[in-house]
Amino acid sequence: MVAEVLVAQQRLNTKAESIALAGAQELEFDFDNSCSLAKQFGFLNFGLTVECAAQGTSIEISISEPNPNQLLSAFLPNIQASSRAGIASDE
Amino acid sequence: MNSEHCVGLDEGKHLVQRSHGYAIAEFAMAIPALLVIVAMSVSLVGLTVTQIQLESSAALGARIIGRGDPIPDSFRNSLPAGTEIIIEPELEAEVVQFTLKTSKNIGLMLLPYRIDLTATAHARLEPVFEEFG
Prior knowledge:
The structure holds two protein chains of two kinds.
Chain A: H1 2-24, H2 34-46, E1 51-55, E2 58-66, E3 78-86
Antiparallel strand pairs in A: 1-2, 2-3
Chain B: H1 2-67, H2 73-78, E1 84-90, E2 95-105, E3 114-124
Antiparallel strand pairs in B: 1-2, 2-3
């Protein structure tokens, strides 16, 4: 029960990281499309609706999924994950 | 009077001793059940930890492949023994799918039972720039 939610949370964390990294690839050369690309990547690969905010040299995304465990979903209906990625600094 | 009193005491002692015996016998019967429950709990915790490790490793592996790097030996050695690595690049979508498959024994010594664990991660393929000079 708890293990199921823990594994689902870990999966969601890795999805958030990959979506943020996918969006961050566009930050340097196509800043305006970085969020739309992150949203597209999240939808096509994971079927998720992505909330995205690109600021300067970084992009921050947050996603959520319904709790896979029916019993625990009464207390915790959704599990959430967020991730931030940016352009590597030379300093 | 005295003899009756003594008889009563003796009977009482006997009864107390017999109930102690029952408690020990019941405890002895419960020990295997308790051990089975503890072993199952430990196996489930181990299973969860292995699954979370696989998920984390799959994400790392997908990122390595997405960068265009080969899988290093240190990564392979960090995986549970017998883990299978499946890499499926989707070049049109510029995405790589990285899957790790392993199996873990959660049964007891007399009843071995293996469970298959799978973890999948995706990463966007990064553009590769050829170095000049």
